[in-house]
Write a structure and sequence with these properties.
- By secondary structure, the protein is α+β, with helices and mostly antiparallel strands.
- The protein has 32 helices and 50 strands.
- The strands form eleven sheets. Strands 14, 15, 16, 17, 18, 19, 21, 24, 33 and 34 form a ten-stranded mixed sheet that branches.
- A hairpin with a 4-residue loop joins strand 9 and strand 10.
- Helix 2 crosses helix 15 and helix 19 packs antiparallel against helix 25.
- The longest helix has 21 residues.
- It is globular.
- It starts with a strand and ends with a helix.
């Protein structure tokens, strides 16, 4: 220990927390941990790490960063003691880190954890990682059962990550209790919304949480009916029937969808508004005039759709890798119920829900605003499908739901009593009574069969039903509830003979089935024939069976749980049970605790000795066993914080120093140790049935008023991410009996040697160690957890291939090495019941996989419901499937090879690998119409002009620039000015290459002059064509050789790309070559230029830059190079192409550029190529709208892809452009193969081996750069419309149907387009709808979507701001006609659109018909099937809302667009009719010209 003088420094002065000179303190080394404190007050002690020797702050002076000194109340210029501490004394058990507004994958969490090992942390310390790409802050630390203010992270420290920006689903159960009053006279709804939600939102604000929230009100409506015939037709499509034969419908009202608000008070207001009409609307939803419908009743909370709701959110959460958002991490479902935490559920659905919640690692919280009952909750009561009178109800206590009880702190003046049971209403509820009367009749007994209290011992009966099995030696059994437990009694219990055992039903995944465990679980009971010493003889009478018969109780073969006393029930530990446990801190007693199950108390309040003990051990009935307790003296140097510093006081966890409980290594309470023998050193094999931790006991005290379960505000404010570690691994016997083992070897060096030879472009392969770490990373990213704390010898013995017991494994023979050689590195991982062991020995990686011998059966539950999303008018029918995923089918072998080869093209990412992706669209940046709508409230929204030829050219230009500079990152230096000549050869590899002239297409008209290209607004003058060189153009008769010669000219040439590894010399871009030909050769048009280049290709004068000769000449951003000709004397400077098309395409992004697609057939048959500057497609040359022209292209509607291009191409992507990561990262880009300036262009970024934050930096960088190219980049969802028949659709999202009112346009006609040939009517209708969406600023986007399978045409449009989508529905019949004629000569499209049978209507049509039939009474009126589907782009989050373009994500703008579009389509203010008339006027005018 040594005294120093303390000064402070700012972070800007030095980034280190502690500046100290090593020579001032002999024996101090770098990386040592020191504690710093004032001599006069011992606590709190600050721990800091010596990072490096930093002299120069004065002799015997240390400097501490200012904010830390303030937090720890250290005074500047005062004396402090500095003392080197022993790391184990200050090691932390667990640390909680919080982070905000970023996506942190599980692989990053693990790498960050490794980075933090043996560093020192303190409260609120800010931690940066990956060059600042990942930022988090220390929130809380626990050590030796107490919360501390600083400490050291060791290998064994558990790190918990909590996210302030999660995806939160708040479900409010609108069951009948919501309209009841609580004891304070508040409606339970008021308690839920004005109480709980208001408090939650306040806490969010205080904590700075910024969650993305969806709020849904849900309820179940029962109908009083005995058969389906009692329902009218319009009700039948969504009815479901439960196990008791009752009919019901489930309703969901989405109040808020994926929103982030600073202030949530408006939402509370909105919820209150919804509440007033909710019940009325739902119960009377189907009422129609003059129609009898069965009476509707709102269900109670217990009978509601609780599990269905959780599964709804899981369907969204499961797809987190599809729409990867970069500014949030974590998923939380919260159900707020007016009930008491008891639900009647279906057993199969419970198993599905449980497995999905656990596998997906989703937090699920249940908040009850009802009064807390006197038994343990949450309690699931299984539907009893057995109608036998004596059948016994079966319960389950889910540990996978985190329970909170919310109570207001109002006081009742006259009494402290809190009633825990709702009083029955005075008046009988008639409707309910009638409903259940029939059932009651069937179940009631005759009067004389009833028992009379006097002769029946109910207590004895109960004792027998819930009786314990004989104890088992490893079981920590609670024996009796008396204080004087004699050892003899325990022995007597153990000696009783095991009777025949009744197995639990196999369907409960929690309970492990193998004969060895039978006696160890507290759930399984003896059969009624077995007499244990404490079972009273009279116990076998059932209160329901008559005395005379003395029949034994008929019971199901399942153990029973007594909800009023679950504390003694233990279950066999499973990996599921331990999946979340590492987020809980260890309490003073050494068991994991949930803090909200303790009652807060003022920090300074002293405790009496017994009270203190009872408080902390929660086991009052063991109070006399003082002899088993040992004292743990508190080390003087430990950083515990003394009680007088109330800021670090942990509520309810104050413990006197001498009273720490000794805990066995397993975490089980070692109390009966002397009697039962030593507990096993490995994981204790049992967990308590109740509670999330499995270690905190349920006691009756938890139900008393002052010790009630509170609200877990922490979990609801900063939800924890699934921990990256767990501690369960099956024992050896279980591994042999219950698991199948398989393994494979990976030798990265050998694999990479093979691949490196085939590669055209050499990439540094990953080292074996990098591959090994990445294999662990990938498994963590897919939801696995690292298993820690399992002893080395156990595992090695259990799986060493040399042991004969497990099935023989396929590992290479071991004879070369000694059998017992320890592996150099080993990791165990698990998810569900799947375990992986990764071992690295030398340069061989062995992956051993254990999967269950008897996996759970796959479930697929279909569910129909009604939901009402924001902006919708009705509750629409929808449907969804809940399925459990077969995790054992994941192809890890393939994934491991993908990693090993750095994502070689042989191992492409496939859907089943669940890789991450992010879809973007490139859209035009500025539109004056958007600005006008934003500035002027009164203007209509259909003011978007048709883009002019110049607009389209600018877009093409911007796109080419984006592709060249940012996607391909090609260097094109400025053009040399003034014609300085230098030998061309020298410049090939130099940085100065002639720029390509980019001539406008219109420049063709001017023959002799070289036009100066208009400068782009960004003022890039290097783009202007140089005046000083005015050479005569080549004659139109020039030979190809002349043209090639001119192309090579240093100043006037076409401009070559800088030569790189994969580019040959003299490489140029095809579209710029066409521009160059137009500028440099007389009389060349766009078509002619293409023909000249095509000829050069055939003559082998030019060739594709990959060296591939089979491809046609493609105009666009495609790279070609000039081949050396025979007459060239000296081709030494020629660099050969790769000669491998696949490798070339994996390096470069090449896109074909086409003109806009015209819906009209050109009058004269021009050559196939379309002029890039082709006229805009909505009108023909005279301005007549396309839908009124005569020459409509009959195929315009059906097929966009009329050439040999694939729809999409893939290329390799370097993700980590700024070298921030601590590993090699890569990804892939999947991009559209063709660009058209009148359409949105799609690009999807895909990755598996990359950090989310680094991917985000790359994409946001592109988005900023796109603006320089007059483009905007916006994210879009994987499934823009979320229709129920698409596989991955979000069950609570759906498109808004906007009908098109054609009535006013008919005007005495039978059909809209009467007078035109009938076979063009559908095409014309489609073109008319396209013209309407064009006026509202929507442009076509050919998006590969999940709906292809459903036979849906590709007619999706996106708004120029990127905020919304519109789908124009086309009817199937016309599509078939088109397909029928085309399939012979164009087999290409056959695979893209499945051909339907004539009868099958498109699911879209069905969907829309249903929309129309919702409330408009003219059911299924086919002529009304015209309209649009509108949906929002929910991927545009705050980060994408650039300040200069407020329309992107401006809510008011979006709602206004929809409102105006609906008005227009409904022909309000005659707007639709006026548009129609204007179009006809143009047509008539044009025809008038023709007639003259």
């Amino acid at each position: 220990m040594k005294a120093f003088k303390l000064i402070v420094h700012q972070n800007s002065f030095s980034p280190v927390d502690l500046i100290i000179s090593l020579k001032d303190y002999p024996g101090l080394k770098e990386k040592d941990i020191v504690e710093i404190y004032h001599p006069e007050n011992d606590y709190p002690r600050l721990l800091l790490q010596v990072i490096k020797d930093a002299p120069g702050r004065g002799r015997d002076t240390i400097s501490v960063e200012q904010s830390i000194a303030t937090t720890f109340q250290l005074r500047t210029f005062a004396d402090v003691y500095v003392n080197i501490v022993n790391v184990p004394d200050v090691a932390l058990d667990s640390v909680e880190l919080t982070f905000k507004d970023q996506y942190m994958g599980r692989s990053e969490m693990w790498r960050l954890k490794n980075h933090l090992v043996s560093t020192c942390v303190y409260l609120n310390k800010k931690i940066e990682y990956c060059g600042g790409a990942i930022r988090c802050q220390v929130y809380e630390m626990w050590s030796q059962g107490d919360r501390v203010a600083c400490g050291v992270i060791t290998e064994d420290t558990k790190i918990v990550f909590r996210s302030s920006t999660s995806m939160v689903y708040l479900f409010i159960q609108m069951s009948s209790e919501m309209w009841d009053f609580d004891i304070h006279g508040d409606l339970y709804f008021e308690k839920a919304v004005n109480g709980f939600l208001a408090e939650l939102f306040t806490k969010w604000k205080k904590n700075g949480s910024n969650h993305e929230v969806t709020i849904v009100l849900f309820s179940r409506t029962f109908y009083k009916a005995k058969s389906l015939e009692e329902f009218p037709q319009h009700m039948k499509e969504c009815l479901q029937k439960d196990y008791r034969g009752r009919f019901y419908e489930d309703f969901y009202r989405v109040a808020v969808q994926n929103e982030r608000y600073e202030d949530w008070s408006n939402v509370l207001l909105q919820l209150r508004r919804l509440f007033t009409d909710y019940q009325k609307i739902v119960l009377q939803y189907h009422e129609r005039p003059n129609m009898e419908i069965p009476t509707a009743i709102n269900s109670t909370a217990a009978q509601g759709n609780f599990l269905e709701v959780l599964n709804m959110s899981l369907n969204v959460f499961e797809k987190h890798y599809l729409d990867r958002c970069f500014d949030r991490t974590g998923q939380l479902s919260v159900v707020i119920t007016p009930g008491v935490g008891v639900f009647e559920v279906d057993r199969e659905l419970t198993n599905v829900t449980k497995q999905r919640i656990i596998d997906n690692g989703v937090g699920s919280d249940l908040v009850c605003v009802g009064e807390q009952p006197l038994h343990a909750v949450p309690l699931l009561k299984f539907h009893n499908k057995d109608n036998n009178l004596n059948s016994i109800d079966d319960y389950s206590m889910p540990h996978w739901i985190n329970l909170s009880f919310y109570s207001t702190n109002k006081k009742v003046a006259y009494s402290n009593f809190i009633p825990r049971i709702k009083l029955p209403p005075r008046k009988s509820q008639e409707p309910l009574k009638k409903m259940y009367e029939d059932e009651r009749k069937s179940k009631l007994l005759k009067e004389d069969e009833y028992m009379h209290n006097s002769i029946f011992d109910y207590d004895a009966y109960d004792a027998q039903v819930f009786q314990l099995p004989p104890a088992h030696s490893t079981c920590v059994q609670r024996v009796a509830r008396t204080k004087k437990t004699s050892v003899a009694g325990l022995e007597g219990l153990r000696r009783s003979p095991p009777a025949s055992i009744t197995h639990r039903k196999m369907s409960d995944p929690d309970i492990h089935h193998s004969l060895g465990d039978i006696l160890s679980t507290g759930l399984k009971r003896c059969d009624s024939g077995c007499d244990t010493p404490d079972s009273p003889t009279g116990a076998r009478l059932s209160p329901r069976s008559s005395i005379s018969t003395h029949k034994p109780v008929i019971r199901t073969g399942r153990a029973l749980i007594n909800p009023f006393d679950p504390s003694h029930v233990t279950v066999k530990l499973t990996s599921n049970r331990r999946r979340w446990t590492h987020i809980f801190p260890k309490g003073p007693t050494g068991v994991l605790i949930q803090q909200h199950h303790y009652q807060a108390r003022p920090a300074g309040e002293p405790l009496s000795r017994t009270e203190n003990h009872r408080e902390n051990t929660r086991e009052s009935h063991r109070e006399r066993r003082e002899s088993h307790r040992e004292n743990l003296p508190k080390e003087n140097g430990s950083p515990m914080i003394n009680n007088n510093h109330s800021i670090y006081q942990v509520d309810g966890n104050i413990i006197s120093q001498s009273r720490k409980r000794m805990i066995s290594a397993s975490g089980a309470l070692n109390i009966l140790g002397t009697v039962l023998g030593p507990p096993s050193t490995n994981n204790a094999s049992l967990a308590l049935l109740w509670g999330a931790t499995g270690e905190q006991e349920w006691t009756p005290a938890l139900t008393t008023a002052n010790r009630a379960i509170g609200v877990d505000w922490k979990s609801l404010t900063i939800p924890a991410c699934l921990p990256i570690t767990t501690d369960y691994f099956p024992d050896k016997r279980s591994l042999q009996n219950d698991y199948l083992v398989s393994d494979y070897n990976l030798l990265p060096d050998d694999v990479n040697a093979d691949f490196a030879q085939n590669r055209a472009i050499y990439k540094e392969p990953l080292t074996t160690m990098e591959v090994f770490k990445e294999l662990v990373s990938q498994r963590l990213a897919q939801g696995f957890q690292l298993i820690v704390g399992v002893s080395e010898s156990d595992v090695i013995e259990a799986h060493c291939p040399s042991t004969p017991a497990p099935p023989p494994s396929k590992v290479a023979p071991q004879h070369s090495k000694p059998v017992n050689q320890a592996p150099t590195k080993r990791f165990l991982l698990s998810i569900g019941r799947i375990f992986h062991k990764l071992t690295l020995v030398g340069s061989t990686i062995t992956v051993t996989r254990y999967r269950p011998r008897h996996p759970y059966p796959p479930f697929n539950i279909h569910y129909r419901y009604r939901f009402h999303a924001p902006n919708h008018d009705t509750y629409e029918v929808s449907w969804v499937s809940f399925t459990t995923e077969k995790l054992e089918n994941y192809n890890w072998n393939y994934m491991d090879h993908y990693i090993c080869t750095r994502g070689d093209t042989d191992f492409a990412l496939v859907e089943a690998l669940k890789y991450w992706r992010f879809r973007t669209l490139l859209l035009p940046l500025h539109n004056p119409a958007t600005k006008q709508i934003l500035e002027d409230e009164s203007t209509h929204c259909d003011i978007y002009p048709t883009p002019t030829r110049q607009d389209l050219d600018q877009l093409t230009d911007g796109f080419l620039k984006m592709t060249e500079s940012y996607f391909n990152k090609v260097k094109r230096p400025n053009k040399q000015r003034g014609g300085v000549s230098s030998p061309f050869r020298e410049r090939v590899g130099s940085t100065r290459l002639p720029d390509r002239p980019r001539l406008r297409v219109e420049a063709m008209a001017a023959a002799k002059t070289v036009l100066e290209r208009t400068q782009s607004q960004t003022g890039e003058s290097d783009d202007t064509y140089d005046d000083s060189v005015v050479e005569p153009k080549l004659k139109s008769t020039a030979t190809l050789a002349d043209i090639v010669e001119r192309m090579r000219h240093p100043q006037l040439g076409v401009g070559f790309l800088q030569q790189t590894v994969s580019l040959p010399s003299h490489a140029f871009v095809s579209i710029y070559a066409i521009h160059w030909l137009q500028a440099n050769v007389e009389g060349v048009t766009y078509e002619k230029g293409t023909q000249i280049m095509e000829k050069m290709l055939q003559e082998k004068m030019i060739c594709h830059a990959s060296g591939d000769t089979t491809k046609r000449f493609v105009v666009g951003y495609y790279m070609y190079h000039i081949l050396p000709q025979k007459k060239d004397k000296d081709p030494t400077d020629y660099v050969r192409p790769l000669g491998d098309l696949q490798s070339f395409e994996n390096e470069w992004m090449e896109v074909e550029v086409l003109g806009p697609r015209s819906p009209l057939v050109p009058h004269e048959s021009s050559s196939g190529a379309l002029d890039i500057s082709g006229c805009s497609p909505q009108t023909d040359l005279t301005g007549v709208p396309a839908f009124l022209c005569d020459n409509i292209d009959p195929d315009y509607m059906h097929c966009d892809n009329d050439n040999d291009m694939p729809l999409y191409k893939n290329t390799h992507l370097d993700i980590d452009v700024n070298n921030k990561s601590d590993r090699i990262e890569w990804g892939h880009a999947r991009y559209q193969a063709t660009f058209r300036p009148d359409q949105a262009y799609e690009m999807c970024i895909q990755w598996a081996v990359a950090s989310g934050n680094i991917v985000a930096e790359l994409i946001f960088g592109w988005a900023r750069k796109a603006q320089n190219c007059r483009l905007q980049m916006v994210p879009i969802p994987a499934d823009p419309l979320a229709l129920p028949f698409t596989l991955k659709s979000d069950p609570l999202r759906g498109p808004i149907y906007v009908p098109l009112n054609e009535e006013p346009l008919l005007r005495n006609k039978n059909a809209l387009f009467e007078g035109f040939p009938e076979d063009t009517w559908l095409e014309r209708l489609f073109l008319f709808q396209e013209a309407i969406v064009g006026r509202f600023g929507f442009i076509k986007c050919t998006v590969e979507s999940t709906s292809h399978a459903a036979g849906v045409g590709d007619h999706l449009y996106v708004h120029v701001t990127g905020n919304m989508f519109i789908l124009i529905i086309t009817t199937v019949k016309s599509e078939q006609k088109a397909r029928g004629t085309r399939r012979a000569n164009k087999p290409l499209n056959a695979s893209r659109y499945p051909v339907h049978l004539e009868a099958a209507p498109s699911p879209h049509e069905a969907y829309i018909t249903r929309h129309v039939s919702g409330k408009n009474k003219d059911d299924y009126d086919n002529s009304r099937r015209m309209g649009f589907l509108w949906s929002w782009n929910h991927m545009i989050s705050k980060k994408w809302k650039w300040s200069q373009y407020p329309a992107t994500g401006d809510e008011a703008f979006q709602t206004r667009m929809l409102r105006d579009f609906k008005h227009f389509c409904a022909n309000q203010e005659q707007r639709l009719s006026q548009f129609w008339d204007q179009c006809w006027a143009l047509q008539e005018k044009a025809h008038g010209i023709d007639l003259e």
